[in-house]
């Protein structure tokens, strides 16, 4: 969670070029509504050199793509934690990008690939060649070919002009010809509401994903990379989504809304078919690039950055706010741009954020909930800090829920705010855990805040006696540490490390 003052004052982050693993798997209504339709098709249709298809682009040119992407990309970068400020990492990704660019259909676009400072595992493309790859995705990737596959895939979206197709479809929808149904699921992405950038972080169609894989496979193999990098990384992303689902007590097939498997719906079989259609045969002496890639990401921040707050198991610590709290066992914490959320296996939900405080905390809460039919206002003290609480009823997409709002005066005109929610028939059983979370809120001393350090990847050789259990201790996932260690190191379930094996270890 970013400090509110920093969110409002941060200037548009700078961008730098960048680029993205594993050899693990060897119309009649339109004619009435629109003028300019004749035997040749819909006015505004153009043949795309990447796909060979004629598609309505909403009268948007390539120059319009560049202008739109340049205007909206800084908003996207800011919404996902800003640019990751590491010249070595950005420079490495820049070099891979440059290797791919000459093999695209639009090599003169101002390709800008930026590593985003977020642990979310994803990548996005905006029109005109603007691409974001998260450091969370880079941590999972294992070699340069996998990195090239991610950037190549996003370049495929750019060159196929999939975003312009969406623009065209949106224009048609406004004319009453099509109904464009798009939905964001992610609260992070919802922050982009009202911005054109919102459109480009929603999931693509399966046909568009197939085209992007086909084009990305074409680019990376022509650049000399092993196409198995695309399949290997996809396998790892699927495994990661399964581990995330298990952590939340969800079925293995449930894909997290933040995960690349949600915004880029793909299967390994379809990706292989796309590579075959692209004639993406393995080039002579294909580049895999495991050693240079691991050297480039040695020291990469893993998980949350201290600037945004750190999740350590069921504890959230924010050195900038100088606050910490704990959620009950079994809850999975998720750090967002403006709030921290925790989901319990038992259906409970906890949200934490900061709110401005003007005067008395109880009166501020009462004014805030004036239109919410709140009841049961009560003052309280949380570790010496004045607070207030009230009950509310909530309407959610899963029906009504019972909620409790708690505000605590943490000084400097700010209040820490919790929202606890559950179905009405479960709230009573969960209320003890909610109270324990409230009273776990504590302030950090200046020295404690300064002592908070980010977790980082440490590339090393396993020694004699090293085991998965031992090497995974630095990860913040508790009982799932071993699963995450195997994800990071492309190890099968139950696999063990061998002496001398190069591994990614997470340390502080």
From TrEMBL:
<dbReference type="GO" id="GO:0046872">
    <property type="term" value="F:metal ion binding"/>
</dbReference>
<feature type="domain" description="Peptidase M48">
    <location>
        <begin position="90"/>
        <end position="275"/>
    </location>
</feature>
<keyword id="KW-0479">Metal-binding</keyword>
<protein>
    <submittedName>
        <fullName>M48 family metalloprotease</fullName>
    </submittedName>
</protein>
<keyword id="KW-0862">Zinc</keyword>
<keyword id="KW-0378">Hydrolase</keyword>
<dbReference type="InterPro" id="IPR001915">
    <property type="entry name" value="Peptidase_M48"/>
</dbReference>
<feature type="compositionally biased region" description="Low complexity">
    <location>
        <begin position="1"/>
        <end position="19"/>
    </location>
</feature>
<dbReference type="GO" id="GO:0051603">
    <property type="term" value="P:proteolysis involved in protein catabolic process"/>
</dbReference>
<dbReference type="Pfam" id="PF01435">
    <property type="entry name" value="Peptidase_M48"/>
</dbReference>
<dbReference type="GO" id="GO:0016020">
    <property type="term" value="C:membrane"/>
</dbReference>
<keyword id="KW-0645">Protease</keyword>
<dbReference type="InterPro" id="IPR006311">
    <property type="entry name" value="TAT_signal"/>
</dbReference>
<dbReference type="GO" id="GO:0004222">
    <property type="term" value="F:metalloendopeptidase activity"/>
</dbReference>
<dbReference type="InterPro" id="IPR051156">
    <property type="entry name" value="Mito/Outer_Membr_Metalloprot"/>
</dbReference>
<feature type="region of interest" description="Disordered">
    <location>
        <begin position="1"/>
        <end position="22"/>
    </location>
</feature>
<keyword id="KW-0482">Metalloprotease</keyword>
């Amino acid at each position: 969670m970013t400090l509110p003052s920093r969110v409002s004052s941060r200037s548009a982050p700078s961008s730098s070029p960048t680029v993205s693993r594993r050899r693990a798997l060897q119309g009649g209504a339109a004619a009435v509504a629109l003028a300019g339709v004749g035997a040749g098709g819909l006015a505004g249709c153009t043949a795309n050199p990447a796909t060979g298809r004629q598609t309505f682009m909403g009268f948007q040119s390539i120059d319009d793509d560049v202008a739109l992407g340049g205007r909206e990309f800084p908003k996207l970068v800011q919404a996902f934690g800003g640019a990751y400020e590491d010249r070595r990492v950005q420079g490495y990704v820049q070099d891979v990008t440059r290797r791919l660019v000459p093999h695209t259909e639009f090599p003169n676009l101002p390709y800008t690939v930026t590593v985003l400072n977020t642990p979310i595992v994803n990548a996005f493309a905006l029109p005109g060649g603007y691409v974001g790859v998260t450091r969370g995705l880079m941590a999972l990737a294992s070699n340069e070919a996998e990195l090239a596959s991610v950037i190549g895939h996003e370049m495929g979206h750019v060159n196929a002009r999939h975003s312009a197709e969406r623009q065209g479809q949106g224009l048609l929808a406004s004319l009453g010809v099509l109904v464009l149904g798009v939905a964001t699921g992610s609260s992070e992405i919802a922050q982009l509401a009202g911005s054109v950038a919102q459109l480009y972080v929603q999931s693509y169609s399966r046909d568009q994903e197939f085209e992007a894989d086909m084009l990305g496979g074409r680019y990376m193999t022509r650049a000399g990379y092993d196409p198995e990098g695309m399949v290997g990384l996809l396998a790892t992303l699927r495994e990661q989504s399964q581990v995330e689902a298990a952590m939340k007590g969800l079925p293995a097939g449930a894909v997290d809304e933040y995960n690349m498997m949600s915004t880029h719906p793909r299967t390994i079989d379809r990706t292989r078919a796309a590579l075959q259609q692209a004639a993406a045969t393995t080039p002579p002496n294909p580049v895999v690039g495991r050693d240079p890639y691991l050297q480039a990401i040695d020291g990469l921040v893993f998980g949350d950055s201290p600037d945004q707050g750190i999740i350590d198991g069921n504890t959230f610590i924010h050195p900038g706010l100088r606050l910490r709290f704990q959620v009950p066992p079994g809850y999975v914490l998720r750090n967002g741009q403006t709030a921290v959320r925790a989901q319990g296996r038992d259906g409970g939900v906890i949200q934490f954020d900061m709110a401005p405080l003007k005067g008395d905390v109880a009166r501020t809460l009462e004014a805030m909930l004036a239109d919410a039919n709140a009841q049961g206002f009560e003052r309280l003290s949380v570790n010496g800090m004045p607070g207030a609480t009230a009950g509310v009823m909530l309407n959610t997409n899963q029906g009504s829920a019972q909620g409790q709002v708690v505000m605590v005066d943490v000084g400097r005109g700010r209040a820490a705010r919790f929202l606890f929610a559950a179905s009405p028939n479960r709230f009573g059983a969960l209320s003890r855990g909610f109270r324990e979370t409230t009273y776990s809120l504590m302030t950090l001393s200046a020295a404690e805040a300064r002592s908070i350090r980010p977790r980082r990847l440490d590339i090393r050789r396993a020694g004699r006696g090293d085991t998965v259990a031992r090497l995974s201790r630095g990860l913040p996932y508790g009982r799932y540490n071993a699963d995450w260690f195997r994800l990071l190191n492309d190890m099968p379930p139950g696999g063990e490390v061998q002496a001398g094996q190069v591994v990614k270890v997470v340390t502080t």
